What we know:
Blueprint: H1 14-36, H2 43-71, H3 76-99, H4 103-130, H5 143-159, E1 163-169, E2 179-186, E3 190-197, H6 199-210, H7 222-243, E4 252-259, E5 273-279, E6 282-291
Antiparallel strand pairs: 1-5, 2-3, 2-4, 3-6, 5-6
Helix pairs in contact: 1-2, 1-4, 2-3, 3-4, 4-5, 4-7, 5-7
Amino acid sequence: MAALWKDEYRVGIDKIDEQHRQLFDKIEQLLEIAKSGDKNSNQQKCMEIIDFLVDYTVFHFNTEEALQREKKYVSYAQHIKIHTEFKNTVQAYKELLNRDFSAKSLKSFIGTMLAWLVNHVCVCDRKIVKNLPLQNIESFANTESFIENVAHKLLTEMYDIPIKNVKSCIYKGNVEGAVIVRTIAESVNKHLFLYGMSNELAGVLYNKISGMSLPHLDFLDELERSALMEIGNIITTYAMGAIDENGTSGVQFKSDLYVHEYNETDYNIINSVILEITTDYGKMEILYSRQK
């Protein structure tokens, strides 16, 4: 397995880069245990690593936030909210694993950590150095234009996947994709997002997150599923920052993954925005619908 930490993740501040490397290294240790199939005999070691990650995440975020105060970083308040939400996520996983130390829970934790950390390092933290806002202060004529912008940021800026074409689609009764992630964002209002990805695009995204190959879609385990669902959470978090009048404050996110088809009928998706995004690795369809 290739090392999770890559030099391309460097943001240019030595102590921050070293702390990021420590986080990736610890996640890699957990991943090796999870993949070995010998997690039960290594339960104590796993929990020691998870305890380290909980404490070190707090230490690392404190370091970043002190740097942001020193630089008078323009998105300081927003960055702190992102940190707080993730600290809560890591703590919740620790409590879950203390109650139920299972292969499923451990792989879910690793997949979520990996996807979130790669995004945060490559997109959010690099903007601290140049004092760039996390989201550009710009008005979008409609929801379509914002979702297109978000897709560009996530695919091209984060994963270096150029977008070749974007077009609006009429709802055809389904969202196409070999892998479909559904993310519900709920605060005062409820918002539905569907992300349909070609088999190749899903594989490329997973490889860029983990350095590993995605297995046959019929045999995805909790690690692969969690990493792909976290991509949906990440894109939705960006979108909610502009779509909802309350931004991401108090928003609860819940994601599910479907293989080959999405056939749920619990949500209204008739009045929806659908964008078809073409890349060198196939297409991604994004559906957005505000629920009543």
